[in-house]
Design goal:
The complex is a heterodimer of chains A (about 700) and B (about 120). Chain A has four domains: about 120 residues, PAS domain (Beta-Lactamase); about 100 residues, PAS domain (Beta-Lactamase); about 170 residues, Beta-Lactamase (2-Layer Sandwich), CATH 3.30.450.40; about 160 residues, Histidine kinase-like ATPase, C-terminal domain (Heat Shock Protein 90, 2-Layer Sandwich), CATH 3.30.565.10. About 5% of the residues of chain A have low confidence. In chain A, β8 and β9 form a beta hairpin. Chain A has about 700 residues and is an alpha+beta fold. Helix content of chain A is about 45%, strand content about 25%. With about 120 residues, chain B is of the alpha/beta class. Chain B contains five helices and five strands. In chain B, α2 packs parallel to α3. The model of chain B has no long low-confidence stretch (mean pLDDT about 85). Classes of the chains: A alpha+beta (about 700), B alpha/beta (about 120). Chains A and B meet through α15 and α16 of A and α1 and α5 of B.
Chain lengths: ~700, ~120
């Protein structure tokens, strides 16, 4: 039903109506697609003048591809079939450039329905098309970006809080696939108590009211585990300002949260250990320190059961020394043999141990009570020594312990070790002090006893002098009386007995004098009366006196003292020394030769008295110069044991010394070494007087 | 005159002196000595004075003697068992010192220095 006849009246009407329209190309096509009219909008959009295009086929507006595909004819056919066709697609201008066109083709029929042609209205939508394209690309980039984000969950919620979009980051973080979660309420990411408290609702309300809501808190994964999340919710509205949903960006800050918590916890633990250390320093009472240590562990670690086990003195068992969460009655009475497996690794390896389920089946150190625990040794500060014991912390509920917890418990154990060691040190110091005090008391007693003895000797010796005076005078008087009566003394019985009694009186006087010497030396009051004399002459004189007694024991006295030895000494005292040495030589000389020699070496004089007698054992040598000491047995050899003691002090008072060398069975040699002029050197109270 | 609390010593000294033709007075302490001195017909030529005696010791006797002009010029020789006897003698301004135990020889030669035979 096509008619190709021109339709001048219609044409002129259309041209009149649309001639001036610039925004739309509105023109007529004949039934075969030939351009029948043109307007200003068509000229502007497509670039052809009316003269150039009228009578040409409209297919030239199509791209070569569309032309090849038969699109122009197809569009006309569809318009006929459907009464109208709209198409958005690229079209071609006169100059060959393309533009995005929105085309509506409507068939034109007359009253009886005969097709007269088509009206074609074309809009240039290139600008809109480009904007749309830009938007599409931007959205595509955003989508790609969101999809590529792994560590952020970026999701859209609809206005009711149901999940609308899901990215791989969300899947990774929360464990749900998009298929599982899209359409579900975002509430399921919250812990149960928070859902009950209405927190998710409140967050959405806040975000929609204020445009934005930020929060950090625990969230729940699909598998029920928790993570510390940082959440930013933003409300999304349409152009009309109506809420259409929310964007929700979630980050997992669990690690950061844990490390923050760990730092806080570590600080708390360190403060607790410091407080405990201070307490230990200030409190000498060990039990108070141990109780405090137990309380510190319980409060800081939140473990209900704490046990401090000390190794027994014999090292073979552990005893509960302090604790909490245990039966009070068991404290002090929980012996564990160290050989038993539960008494642990801790002591054997001196390393901390964590008691897991395995350990609890074994009973731990304290016996099976379930939960989780940790045991550290109370190490001795001296690493070569065995640990003092163990400290065990345990909670009834299962829980994990961190390295920080082990370090904390070890630090507490170290404070305990220090306190235990301090106690043992104090104990040692106390015992040492006690021992020293006893020693001092004993020494003081010995000194007192010695002083009392010296005082007694002094008093006794002085007291003896008075009866000696009477005795001596009576005897001498009697002797003198006999002589006066001109009775021959020698040979007479009375005379011999009298002489004997006189000799014994002299001996008695001498003994009393020696005892007094001892008390003088002990009191530092040995006085010297110095005078100038020939010591060799004195030695010869004393030696002469001893010739006869020596001969009586069978000893020959050999004298080498010819050279005069002038010097300044106490004559009577040195005579006493030489007498002592010679009488010893005669006494212990075993009848063998005795030699007496004097010599001068520079400013020193030496007197040597040598015998070949019984000698002195080496062990006895150090004590022969001390008071009341004798190397020879008292039974065989009498005497007070004072001679050498006095001799040594006399020589030392002169600034000299006495030396002895001896071999048992071979004899002894005593050498007196004196300065030429006595140097008063000995006791601080000793005095020397030079006789004028 | 012998002033000595020990009767044996006093007696022994007196015997020796009598043997040597001296007349000896004796007293057991300072008080008795003073009394005898003042009552004596003949002044002694020497006093042998023990230091440690009951009632009145040597120090007290010497002080009393010095303050009594009638007897103050009699020489005194100190008789002592103690080592500090010589110091005591010096302090008492004594004429001499005789340490115990006293030998007859020393005693006689000392007395000879102060007394002619027959004197008290």
């Amino acid at each position: 039903m096509t008619d190709s006849k021109p339709w001048p009246a219609l044409l002129s009407n259309v041209q009149l109506a649309f001639q001036g329209i610039r925004d739309y190309a509105i023109f007529l096509l004949q039934t075969d697609g030939t351009v029948a009219s043109w307007n200003e909008g068509a000229r502007l959009i497509k670039g052809y003048s009316e003269a150039e295009i009228v009578g040409q086929s409209f297919s030239r507006f199509y791209t070569p591809e569309d032309q090849l595909a038969g699109k122009p004819a197809a569009l006309l056919a569809r318009a006929l079939q459907e009464g109208r066709v709209e198409d958005e697609a690229w079209r071609v201008r006169k100059d060959g450039t393309r533009f995005w066109a929105d085309v509506v083709i409507t068939p034109l029929r007359d009253r009886d329905g005969t097709l007269r042609g088509f009206v074609k209205i074309t809009r240039d939508l290139t600008a809109r098309k480009e904007a749309e394209e830009a938007l599409r690309q931007s959205e595509e980039r955003m989508r790609l970006m969101i999809d590529s984000v792994n560590d952020h969950a970026i999701v859209m919620l609809d206005s009711s809080g149901k999940v609308a979009t899901w990215n791989p980051g969300a899947e990774r973080l929360k464990g749900y696939t998009a298929r599982e979660i899209v359409g579900q309420s975002f509430e399921r990411f919250y812990p149960e108590p928070e859902i009950r408290a209405g927190k998710p609702r409140l967050e959405l309300e806040t975000a929609s009211r204020e445009g934005r809501f930020e929060d950090e808190g625990w969230r729940v994964r699909k598998d029920g585990s928790r993570f510390w999340a940082s959440v930013v919710l933003r409300a999304v509205s349409n152009e009309q300002g109506e809420l259409i949903g929310f964007t929700k960006v979630t980050r997992d800050l669990t690690e950061r949260k844990r490390s923050e918590e760990a730092i806080i916890e570590r600080t708390r633990q360190q403060a607790a250990v410091a407080a405990l250390g201070l307490f230990a320093l200030e409190h000498p009472d060990l039990d108070a320190v141990l109780d405090r240590a137990v309380a510190t562990v319980r409060e800081t670690m939140g473990t209900e059961i704490v046990a401090l086990l000390e190794r027994s003195a014999d090292g073979k068992s552990l005893a509960l020394r302090a604790g909490c969460g245990l039966e009070a009655a068991s404290i002090g009475r929980l012996p564990l043999q160290l050989g038993s497996p539960e008494a642990g690794n801790g002591l054997r390896t001196a390393e901390p141990g964590q008691l897991g389920q395995q350990a609890f089946r074994m009973g731990g150190v304290l016996g099976g009570q379930g939960g989780s625990g940790m045991t550290v040794p109370i190490r001795a500060s001296d690493p070569s020594r065995e640990a003092h014991g163990l400290i065990e912390a345990r909670s009834r509920a299962e829980r994990a312990f961190r390295d920080d917890d082990v370090n904390f418990l070890q630090a507490v154990a170290n404070v305990i070790a220090a306190a235990l060691e301090r106690r043992s040190m104090e104990e040692q110091v106390r015992m040492a002090e006690q021992k020293a005090a006893e020693e001092r008391a004993r020494a003081s007693q010995v000194r007192d006893a010695l002083r009392e003895r010296d005082e007694f000797i002094s008093v006794a010796a002085h007291e003896l002098r008075t009866p000696l005076t009477a005795l001596q005078l009576k005897l001498q008087g009697a002797e003198r009386g006999l002589r006066a009566e001109a009775r021959p003394l020698a040979g007479s019985t009375v005379g011999l007995r009298l002489n004997g009694a006189l000799r014994q009186t002299e001996r008695l006087s001498l003994l009393v004098e020696r005892l007094l010497d001892v008390t003088r030396i002990a009191a530092g009051r040995l006085e010297l009366s110095l005078e100038q004399f020939d010591l060799a002459a004195l030695v010869r004189q004393v030696a002469d006196d001893f010739r006869e007694p020596a001969a009586q024991t069978g000893s020959e006295l050999r004298l080498e003292a010819q050279q005069p030895l002038e010097g300044c000494w106490d004559r009577l005292r040195l005579e006493q020394v030489i007498v002592n040495l010679l009488s010893n030589a005669v006494k212990y000389g075993a009848g063998r030769p005795i030699s007496v020699r004097t010599e001068r070496a520079g400013e020193r004089i030496r007197i040597a008295v040598t015998d070949e007698g019984i000698g002195i054992a080496e062990a006895d040598l150090p004590r022969i110069f001390t008071r009341f000491q004798r190397a020879a047995p008292v039974r065989n050899y009498g005497g007070l044991g004072l001679g050498l003691y006095i001799a040594k002090h006399i020589v030392e008072a002169h600034g000299g010394r006495v030396e002895v060398s001896s071999r048992p069975g071979k004899g002894s040699a005593f050498v007196v070494d004196l300065p030429v002029a006595a140097v008063q050197a000995a006791g601080k109270h000793d005095q020397a007087r030079v006789r004028a | 005159m012998v002033v000595e609390d020990d009767a044996d010593v006093r007696e022994a000294i007196a015997e020796v002196l009598t043997d040597c033709q001296y007349k000896a007075l004796h007293a057991a302490n300072g008080a008795e000595a003073l009394q005898r001195l003042r009552a004596a017909d003949v002044r002694p030529c020497l006093i042998l004075l023990d230091m440690m005696m009951p009632t009145m010791d040597g120090w007290q006797f010497r002080a009393a003697q010095k303050s009594d002009p009638s007897v103050s010029d009699i020489p005194v020789v100190v008789l002592s068992a103690h080592a500090d006897g010589s110091e005591a003698a010096a302090k008492l301004d004594a004429a001499g010192y005789l340490p115990k135990p006293v030998s007859l020889e020393t005693l006689v030669s000392l007395v000879e220095r102060f007394c002619a035979v027959g004197q008290e």
